[in-house]
Write a structure and sequence with these properties.
52% of the residues lie in helices and 19% in strands. The protein is α+β, with helices and mostly antiparallel strands. α3 (79-99) packs antiparallel against α4 (118-136). The protein is elongated. The relative contact order is 0.10.
Length: 146
């Protein structure tokens, strides 16, 4: 028979894993995620880029795909169609942020989600609005020639 402490730890682990996997079950396919590797070689995933090397990812069939690699492999999506999809994804992300009571980030040291501060929250919304503006407005002539 397990000790009371062992039972509590087991139950806590089961509840934690259930909550974790339930989050994935309800996650939308087009959720935007950024992936980067820090100076210590650890890979990070987050809703906003952690540094300049971060690559925008998306969840598709619960498998991460690099958007650039996906579009290069298929070769069937035209630039306008891809831009329209990214525009819609950006709008969806912003709408999710607005509906959420709180926004969180994962803290590696604490090994748990931490609620964003007001400044981080403001920065996250600002970046989401910039994404919508960038993807939903046609590129200027000078941008397309670069």
């Amino acid at each position: 028979m397990k000790s009371l402490t062992g039972q509590i730890v087991s139950l806590s682990l089961i509840v934690s894993l259930s909550i974790f996997f339930t989050g994935f079950a309800f996650a939308e396919k087009n959720t935007e995620i950024y992936k980067w590797t820090d100076k210590d070689g650890r890979v990070h995933y987050a809703a906003r880029p952690g540094d300049d090397s971060a690559k925008k990812m998306h969840l598709g069939s619960r498998i991460f795909h690099d958007q650039k690699k996906t579009s290069q492999k298929t070769g069937t999506m035209k630039k306008d169609d891809e831009r329209a999809k990214l525009c819609q994804d950006s709008k969806d992300t912003l709408a999710k942020y607005k509906k959420a009571p709180f926004l969180y980030r994962y803290d590696d040291e604490l090994k748990q989600k931490v609620r964003l501060t007001d400044a981080e929250n403001k920065e996250t919304f600002l970046q989401a609005e910039k994404d919508v503006s960038y993807w939903c407005n046609p590129p200027q002539e000078s941008e397309s020639k670069k």
